[in-house]
Design a protein that fits this description.
Bound molecules: adenosine-5'-diphosphate, magnesium ion
Helix content: 40-55%
Radius of gyration: 20 Å
Structural class: alpha+beta
Oligomer: single chain
Strand content: 15-25%
Number of strands: 11
Order of helices and strands: EHEEEHHHHHEEEHHEEEEHHHH
Shape: globular
């Protein structure tokens, strides 16, 4: 049931003080996406929401790289696209400077402005859905809330103000699959891929579907897959159908998920996974579960 104040709601442990480990040492940078940068202490992560100009700079950069990939030295464009490394951060700062000197109106009127607005809206909606339906379930990492606290970040001159933190997962699903592949542990890869599909179906039973279900948005805790990034969640069937129409034309889902090289040595696992994915991530497959578990009457207001 949606609650008036999302932050300190069911499932979040509310503490009188922030955990000591957030304060005793500067937090390290753990990962980043388009909209957030994630910092961590040994057991907890906090997220810094990027400024609007930072997000726009990233979108501009992303599109330029996409367009220029084939002109850049072999692999460089792809390398930059795949890992937001130091180089991409430097490029981003330059792009941001350009954006700063041009009027805001210009950006918001362009396609980039539209992409940015869609991203922000989706992110807010997804976070709200996650607070209302997923907090405190085994589908997401644990969550704690505490009074506003200033934390230090390694290599960053400012303080970051936070009032909640999320359980730090062992690694992303993407990292786990790659680590297992390096060790040739393919049976376990297949098991994790099945758990990933199982988790998605549990979400559908709650009437939640992720339109951004890539492997870096999911994490691993013990033997569970959890959702890390609620940004792509929707509860609107029309949007789900649109996404499924796209899935319908994907012939090899494992390629789409970036598992082509990883499963190159095991076409049998790729084939089994693709067959299961095609069956499960389809209109028929999602409809079978959709909203079966959502509490009656809780549909309003979301
Ligand atoms: N609870 C967590 N534990 C460990 N790493 C995390 C956690 N949450 C996020 N991350 C890392 O940070 C990255 C970006 O976080 P995410 O919420 O996906 O931000 P964005 O909305 O910008 O994509 C993730 O891909 C993952 O690598
Ligand atoms: Mg993400």
């Amino acid at each position: 049931m949606p609650r008036p104040n999302g932050q300190a709601s069911r499932g979040a442990r509310i503490l009188a003080n922030a955990p000591k480990e957030l304060l005793t040492q500067p937090l390290v940078r753990l990962g980043e996406g388009i909209g957030k940068v994630v910092y961590a202490s040994p057991r907890w992560v906090v997220k810094r929401v990027r400024s609007d100009s930072e997000v726009i700079a990233l979108i501009v950069l992303w599109r330029l790289l996409r367009r220029w990939e084939r002109f850049l030295p072999v692999g460089l464009g792809r390398h930059l696209l795949q890992r937001p490394s130091r180089r991409i951060r430097i490029l981003r700062v330059f792009t941001q400077m350009v954006i700063h000197v041009l009027p805001d109106r210009l950006w918001y009127a362009t396609h980039i402005g539209t992409v940015w607005k869609r991203y922000r809206e989706q992110d807010h909606r997804g976070e709200k859905l996650a607070r209302d339906y997923l907090l405190g379930t085994s589908l997401v990492p644990g969550h704690i809330a505490f009074p506003r606290t200033h934390v230090r970040i390694k290599g960053w001159p400012y303080w970051l103000t936070v009032d909640h933190a999320t359980e730090r997962v062992e690694c992303t699903l993407h990292q786990r699959l790659n680590a297992l592949a390096r060790e040739g542990r393919y049976e376990e890869i297949e098991q994790w891929l099945n758990r990933f599909l199982d988790l998605r179906q549990q979400g559908w039973r709650l009437g939640l579907f992720s339109v951004d279900a890539h492997l870096k948005n999911f994490g691993v805790v013990e033997d569970r897959v959890v959702l890390l990034d609620a940004g792509g969640l929707t509860n609107e069937w029309e949007e789900v159908e649109n996404r499924l129409a796209f899935e319908d034309v994907v012939v090899e889902p494992h390629i789409q998920l970036g598992l082509g090289a990883l499963l190159g040595a095991r076409p049998d696992i790729a084939a089994r996974f693709n067959a299961r994915w095609k069956q499960v991530v389809s209109v028929k497959g999602v409809r079978r579960h959709w909203q079966a578990l959502r509490p009656v009457g809780s549909g309003e207001g979301v």
